[in-house]
Amino acid sequence: MMSSTLLAGVLALSLSASAAVPSVKEGQVQVHADDLPLEVALSGDTHGWRTVDRLEVNEGTGPFWLRTQVEVPAREAGAPTPALALSMLGSWEAWWDGSPLGRNGQVGRTSAEEVPGRIDAQLPLPPELSAPGPHVLTMRVSAHRLGFQPVGTLHRVQVGEAVALAQTRMFGLLPALCSLGALVLMGLYHLARVRLTRDALATLLLGVLCLCAATLVLLEAWRGIANYLYPLHPVRLRLLAGTVLAVAALLPATVHAAFGEPRRWLRWMGLGFGLLSLAFVPGFDNKQGVALGTSLVVSALLVVRARRRGEPGAWGALAGLVFSVALYLFEPWGFSDRGFFLAFGGLLLWLTVVHAQQQRRQQERLESATRAAERLQLELLKRSLQPHFLMNTLGALSEWVETQPAQAVRFIEALGTVYRHLLAVSGERTIPLSRELELCRAHLDVMGCRQGTAFRLKTEGVDLDAPVPPALLHTLLENAFSHNRYVSPHTFRLQGSLVTEGAQPRRHYAFLAPLGTGKGPGGGDGTGSRYLRARLEEAFPGAWGLQDGPTEEGWMTRVEVPA
Amino acid sequence: MRLLIVEDEPLAARRLARLCEQWLGPGAPPLRVCASLDEARAQLAGRDVDVLLLDLNLSGEDGFTLLAEATAGAFLTVVVSANTDQALRAFELGVLDFVPKPYTPERLALALGRVGSRAATPLRTLAVRKGGGVVLVPLDSVAYIQGAGDYAELVLREGGTELSEKSLERLEQLLPADFFRIHRSYLVRVTDIRELVASEGSRTSVDLRDGTRLPVGRSRLPLLRKRLEA
């Protein structure tokens, strides 16, 4: 009898409450700015209570009162008594249908009196007050230590099975935590590679970007993992905002560097836009949403430009970006804590793949350059073993041996010098000019012996330490001999000059092969000229010039290289 | 033997001349040396050169153009060259021998010794001068060769003739062994002979597979019979 009366009373109370108090389901709560006495706050009196949007509860430091109707969901018979999950930026005490439910920290009239509560809390409901249906939650709240003006201080009111509530929170963290390990690994991997790659900037940015994203994950997860005191929340929010901003700025910068975008100002465009819009966007989530959105758009723009330039890997990056943009459009404001990790994981994976492809191409370029260098070395040695040169030289030697042995020894000496030099320099990228001149003079000695005359090489205005590709002049000499017959003494001339006009000082060489008799001047049969160009390209990639042609005095070859 | 040396390198020319003189011995007609085929043309036009010793840089195509021109001449050509990989092509053009540099006196002597016997490798193409240029006539297209004084007329299977500046004697040295001198004026491939025909007055002729009838020299008949029976 007693119990039934009590039950009826409770029911009546709950019904009257349900009539007066707006419910969380409708997204509304009632607040009272004064620190009411407990019995007044619990009486159901409506005087002085304002109805506000549940997400926009912001009553300053308090203490203030808050009440709302909370639905206890239906549950199977024998299921455990549900719990109430509350997330509130402040310290609070709570009553459930008028009975004390619990507290989080210590509500205080001053900052000194207040003991900060934790950001998230779960309280078990009293078994006798957990019947399915509406119940009234009343809270006394103070928040002296927020230190900033949030949009709303009440983030979550939910009744459910304790395990399920915990799971919900875990699932919220799952995408972020899943990508954490991958992001850290990728970041460290790229940073470790910075010193090893030629494309250091893109690698560095990619590494920092991955680590920034990992920081973002950690900051996201921090709340769920540490359940810190509420004053730390603004600290975390600011850190998060900074990190999001860094990520938003780094993404286009990385794309910019990875695809070698020629226009530098585009690198700053994303950051500039992001910062501008942030100044006018209220709320942390919104700021982050805008920053990431801008970042994605600018990155996409850069990738489209790279695609137009025909950069390899642009398709992949574009696919990743399109995926991210799609997720972003699907949920712009929650993007930074949910979709972001999915999108970003995918995008970073793409970027990493693109980067790996680029690295491989670089490796291939390097290998082909190495092969080219080996080919050049081989070509030079092969040319010095050309039957026409070698066999005629040996024939000449036979003659010396049979007629003038002393002369033969001198001849062998000259020949030895030529080959010694050739072998020593053939594998080098550049050699000092002095060395090249020694090789040429030895070659002229051999040719002089063979032709029964004397040849000289005169130099003027050359820097003997200047680097030249091996056998540069030697090749020109060979060309001269294959196109002319020199049966009398001749002088070959090399003139050097240093031109310091313009940004880069350059060296000019003019090599004159005198006219002899025979087929007349010519630039060689092509192999010599090809060798020259390949050697110059190897030594001074894209920064050399070669011109040749007949002049009054003979065949003039002009070579221009950076000094 | 009247020799002409074409060699552009003084020392190489000196060696070639010295070794040839040693081989010819005293009393031989004086050697002539030119530095290029251009210079030698005038000497060769006089038809008083038996053997041309030619040094060519055969690494380029123009070397072969010159060689074809040389082998079209009335004289026999011995190539002296560093480019041994081109020897086969040189032989195909009809050179008597190919002496690779560097060479010993003995190797040169061997080449000079071939003059008057057979070439080191029989030719497969005959170079003939025609209209200011040189035409290469494949030996397979030649039906038989008829002497015409100092020249020789190549009678072709397709009809028509080409005139070679080489005499039948010189051609005989260069041609493969299955070419047989059946007569003072005729060189015929033995495999082309269908039968020996006795004609009037104890004369003998051969009928070739294409129906041509050519006379056989009396002194050459026994040897021809032996070849045909073999």
TrEMBL record, chain A:
<keyword id="KW-1133">Transmembrane helix</keyword>
<feature type="signal peptide">
    <location>
        <begin position="1"/>
        <end position="19"/>
    </location>
</feature>
<keyword id="KW-0812">Transmembrane</keyword>
<dbReference type="InterPro" id="IPR050640">
    <property type="entry name" value="Bact_2-comp_sensor_kinase"/>
</dbReference>
<dbReference type="Pfam" id="PF06580">
    <property type="entry name" value="His_kinase"/>
</dbReference>
<feature type="transmembrane region" description="Helical">
    <location>
        <begin position="170"/>
        <end position="189"/>
    </location>
</feature>
<feature type="transmembrane region" description="Helical">
    <location>
        <begin position="266"/>
        <end position="284"/>
    </location>
</feature>
<feature type="transmembrane region" description="Helical">
    <location>
        <begin position="313"/>
        <end position="333"/>
    </location>
</feature>
<keyword id="KW-0472">Membrane</keyword>
<feature type="domain" description="Signal transduction histidine kinase internal region">
    <location>
        <begin position="377"/>
        <end position="453"/>
    </location>
</feature>
<feature type="transmembrane region" description="Helical">
    <location>
        <begin position="239"/>
        <end position="259"/>
    </location>
</feature>
<feature type="transmembrane region" description="Helical">
    <location>
        <begin position="201"/>
        <end position="219"/>
    </location>
</feature>
<feature type="transmembrane region" description="Helical">
    <location>
        <begin position="339"/>
        <end position="356"/>
    </location>
</feature>
<feature type="transmembrane region" description="Helical">
    <location>
        <begin position="290"/>
        <end position="306"/>
    </location>
</feature>
<dbReference type="GO" id="GO:0000155">
    <property type="term" value="F:phosphorelay sensor kinase activity"/>
</dbReference>
<dbReference type="GO" id="GO:0016020">
    <property type="term" value="C:membrane"/>
</dbReference>
<keyword id="KW-0732">Signal</keyword>
<dbReference type="InterPro" id="IPR010559">
    <property type="entry name" value="Sig_transdc_His_kin_internal"/>
</dbReference>
<protein>
    <submittedName>
        <fullName>Sensor protein lytS</fullName>
    </submittedName>
</protein>
TrEMBL record, chain B:
<keyword id="KW-0597">Phosphoprotein</keyword>
<feature type="domain" description="HTH LytTR-type">
    <location>
        <begin position="126"/>
        <end position="230"/>
    </location>
</feature>
<dbReference type="GO" id="GO:0003677">
    <property type="term" value="F:DNA binding"/>
</dbReference>
<dbReference type="Pfam" id="PF00072">
    <property type="entry name" value="Response_reg"/>
</dbReference>
<dbReference type="Pfam" id="PF04397">
    <property type="entry name" value="LytTR"/>
</dbReference>
<dbReference type="InterPro" id="IPR046947">
    <property type="entry name" value="LytR-like"/>
</dbReference>
<dbReference type="GO" id="GO:0000156">
    <property type="term" value="F:phosphorelay response regulator activity"/>
</dbReference>
<feature type="modified residue" description="4-aspartylphosphate">
    <location>
        <position position="55"/>
    </location>
</feature>
<feature type="domain" description="Response regulatory">
    <location>
        <begin position="2"/>
        <end position="116"/>
    </location>
</feature>
<dbReference type="InterPro" id="IPR011006">
    <property type="entry name" value="CheY-like_superfamily"/>
</dbReference>
<protein>
    <submittedName>
        <fullName>LyTR family two component transcriptional regulator</fullName>
    </submittedName>
</protein>
<dbReference type="InterPro" id="IPR001789">
    <property type="entry name" value="Sig_transdc_resp-reg_receiver"/>
</dbReference>
<dbReference type="InterPro" id="IPR007492">
    <property type="entry name" value="LytTR_DNA-bd_dom"/>
</dbReference>
